[in-house]
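PT: before anyone asks, these are the final sequences, not the draft ones from last week. 708 residues across everything. Please model them as a single complex and drop the result in this thread when it's through.
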Amino acid sequence: MSLQELFDQTISGWMDGTGPSSDIVISSRIRLARNIEGLPLPHVLDAERAQEVIEKVERAVDDVNKRGNLGHLKMYLYKDISALERQILVEKHLVSPALGQGCPNCGAAVNKEGTVSILINEEDHLRLQCLQSGLQLEETWELCSALDDGLEEEIEYAFQEKYGYLTACPTNVGTGLRGSVMIHLPGLVMTGQVGRILNTVGQLGLAVRGFYGEGSEAAGNIFQLSNQITLGHEEEKMIENLESVTRQIFEQEQAAREALMSSAKTNMEDRVWRSYGVLTNARIVKSTEALQLLSDIRLGSELGVLPSIGTKTLNELLVIIRPAYLQWLAGSSLETEERDHMRAGIIREKLGKS
Amino acid sequence: MSLQELFDQTISGWMDGTGPSSDIVISSRIRLARNIEGLPLPHVLDAERAQEVIEKVERAVDDVNKRGNLGHLKMYLYKDISALERQILVEKHLVSPALGQGCPNCGAAVNKEGTVSILINEEDHLRLQCLQSGLQLEETWELCSALDDGLEEEIEYAFQEKYGYLTACPTNVGTGLRGSVMIHLPGLVMTGQVGRILNTVGQLGLAVRGFYGEGSEAAGNIFQLSNQITLGHEEEKMIENLESVTRQIFEQEQAAREALMSSAKTNMEDRVWRSYGVLTNARIVKSTEALQLLSDIRLGSELGVLPSIGTKTLNELLVIIRPAYLQWLAGSSLETEERDHMRAGIIREKLGKS
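LR: through. Structure below.
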């Protein structure tokens, strides 16, 4: 599988809208931070030792592929691919934005479904990531745990009985686990409850971020909830906690939507139909506006106000309208204005109004 | 013809888009102010004398109807019709807003095409008005002049050799004539030229007003140009002057549109498609927003950016989305929110997207 093939496939597994509660919870993600015993951590790693990491991971991935129970992972070294290709891996949520910015000794192994990836020589030697549709943190954890076990056949992880897995950043020490969900909360935003709720979430040991993780804004009413504490808890407990909080927020979002539909039905209908009208007709659409309008029509479709729009299409649009993906689709680099024009065209096409 | 029948006919003759240059010049209007010899002017007229005016006009109108060359005029006394019905006559541009506000001794005679009306006992005893599609001031003048002659068979007008026709307000003395055109100038508004041009128009002895005459705003980029001076000029000269200035503005509007399409084509396309998207999808539309968006789609249709939308439909919408007309169509009085909702529905329906 070449990157070409990976990118041609605009729908990743996590986008397909088949997971539980995927009307509100877009995806579940588990990430495990791991380092290799006996090698310096990436920020003090020289090129030679970095190469050693890459080779060890390569062998371990080969082993995993041979066993075949986790699909097929293909490895890409960042020095071999373009900045645009790296950015697309970020936009497909396969690698984190930090790594996407380029790093000569970095690499990533990804499966063709876009649901499993291993980041190499970023903040830690390895970061395992599994991404699934809807709210299914346990299943995603099982997948990631199996990958972890598979890699451990070949790699000896840095591990101390007292602390657990050692990581570059102390916030990851212990389980090295970060679970997160992407959740669409237009109802809570519109009713003005989102601030209070996300504040409470913080007090429960969870963090709230935007669509692209740390530092990114919650564009299009999509929030990322994740556990903050990795030390002193069992993995299952952490995941249970995150899942339970997510379920509560899910219910509050549903209640907010019902309240809006009973107290301000015509206004809601007007809002989502207008957003639909703009998305299916505009010739220039900026990224932030697109995310906001897509949030409206996702809500409208789920409330039965608009004709049903597939969750798959909506999730796909979240990714393919991003700057790097647009340029990849165009086959050339594009100025902002050209991207805004192309974005508008793609949205119309995907919504069946080209 | 009852008012019911008149209002059922949502398209008046001036809306049909058949007149010359009717893509930019919506309509041409001629108004003649006349008073009856030997009777006090309306502002000092008692009920008995007002009744005398009404009877004289009634007889004159009967005569005109019998001759039949000006269609059939039907007379309505304001005391016999509701405030809503009076307001619809205003919205159909058959009577002026002042008279629409109610006056116990007032009345109006109108033809069923909605192109000829006589206002009785408003500021003057009689105000004759003829309204035609597009830029055809001379033809409209001929029509109004024929009506004037027809009425004069029965009525003796107050006239002095030195001044001409005597009127209540000195600004109308002389010919009593006011010619005006409704002109749609989105190109000049968008290119920021409209202020300068309309200022120049003022220096040429013309006045600029909004869609509903004196004191009304130029909502939806529709301006009303009219002659200011009624004294000391021949009617034909005045009309020639107004027609000539209108033609020049028409050309400047066309040039502005061409400039926009060559310098900002994508932005123009985006603007008119967005407006089309909102109008064909929104569930709540306020009056001012409707006029602005209708201006955009009229422009878009004329520029060939949008699929062609009939001028007749667009002109009809200008009238039927007004508050009184909406309530008449609904058959009941409506709160603002209900009107905004109904307006949105009617627009979608007329644009073929109900």
